[in-house]
Write a structure and sequence with these properties.
The chain is α/β, with parallel strands linked by helices. It is built from ten helices and twelve strands. A hairpin with a 5-residue loop joins strand 11 and strand 12.
Length: 337
């Protein structure tokens, strides 16, 4: 991989869920626990996992929409998590976001022209009105909408069209990286495919990088170069997308992949059903956080937390199975009870 443009190291975010008398006995939940990821220029890294695993919190910490508890965030070699708000102007221009809900992310009281002009004015990129209008028309054409759309209101567009406008707004400042937080999950299946194709085309044309946050591996397969799988606030596996889809190493990744429907009835995929409920992040299990649901659990899993480290084929994996001689044929449930 090329030198990373975005580097997140040991990111941790805690939320206080209850406070005791005078602050004593406050309960906290680790939404993100020691996440380390890297994104290179022009690359798409997908972060996937079940709802509540902390993937959206990672994106919001990177965007500085919420303050991280600990860890380091670097953008193009500069540490940005310690910068004061008045020094974040250049960072805000380089890092943009596409939100999940296209119906609530656009101001209903503004025309599309004003929505797209706002970031241009904020960063003083196109000072004259004629230059801004030309840029707005260019942005609308880039996302497949006619320039005349600029004079319409958000309620006049469908959900897919609104998300295209959200993408145009994110690209207005020529960012280096765009964080897509479940950017297609609220859309119909056919519209999802259109937006995914649009993102891929825009990446080829502009060289922008994407941090693509999603719970859907079927979508991720078609958009990402690499995938980071999260479970209960931690990264459990990072691998190139093709390698991860063809041969998932972590039991949780295998279970997520087995739930993806295959349109071709001639192809079959082994089913790996995850039993049990997700543990509370306020009281995670000791050892491996997946040990309460893993079909291959053994004693070490319940005692020692696995570190995210290189596996035999170069991917990163947080699983004790990789250290076993029989890792290709893992132990059955309860083998060492």
């Amino acid at each position: 991989m090329a030198d990373p443009f975005l580097r997140v190291k040991g990111l941790q975010k805690q939320f206080t869920i209850s406070k005791g008398l005078f602050g004593w006995g406050a309960r906290r939940v680790d939404a993100v626990s020691g996440v380390t990821i890297e994104v290179s220029k022009g690359e798409t890294l997908a972060v996937v996992g079940e709802s509540g695993c902390g993937k959206s919190t990672v994106g919001r910490c990177i965007l500085k929409l919420v303050d991280r508890t600990s860890g380091e965030i670097y953008l193009d070699g500069e540490r940005i998590d310690t910068l004061s708000n008045w020094r974040l102007g250049n960072f805000r221009r380089k890092v943009q976001v596409v939100f999940q809900d296209p119906f609530s992310s656009l101001n209903p009281r503004l025309r599309i022209r004003d929505i797209l002009a706002e970031p241009l004015r904020n960063f003083r990129l196109f000072p004259s009105q004629s230059e801004r209008n030309a840029r707005i028309a260019e942005l609308l054409r880039m996302v497949g909408l006619p320039p005349e759309s600029a004079d319409r209101w958000p309620h006049e567009f469908s959900g897919g069209q609104r998300q295209r406008i959200g993408i145009a707004r994110a690209l207005a400042t020529n960012p280096e990286i765009v964080i897509c937080d479940e950017a297609v999950s609220a859309l119909d299946v056919s519209v999802k495919a259109q937006i995914i194709n649009l993102l891929r085309d825009l990446q080829k044309r502009t060289g922008v990088a994407f941090l693509f946050i999603s719970h859907d591996l079927a979508i991720v397969e078609n958009v990402a170069h690499r995938v980071a799988v999260m479970y209960l606030g931690k990264i459990v596996e990072i691998a190139p997308t093709k390698d991860l889809i063809a041969d998932p190493h972590h039991p949780y990744t295998e279970a997520l992949l087995s739930a993806v429907p295959i349109p071709d009835p001639r192809r079959r995929r082994s089913q790996r059903i995850i039993e049990g409920e997700i543990p509370s992040p306020a009281n995670p299990p000791k050892g491996c956080r997946f040990n309460t649901r893993c079909p291959f659990v053994f004693d070490r899993c319940r005692i020692e937390e696995p570190a995210l480290s290189p596996a035999t084929d170069g991917r990163l994996l947080a699983c004790h199975l990789k250290d076993l001689p029989e890792a290709k044929d893992p132990l059955p449930l309860g083998a060492n009870n």
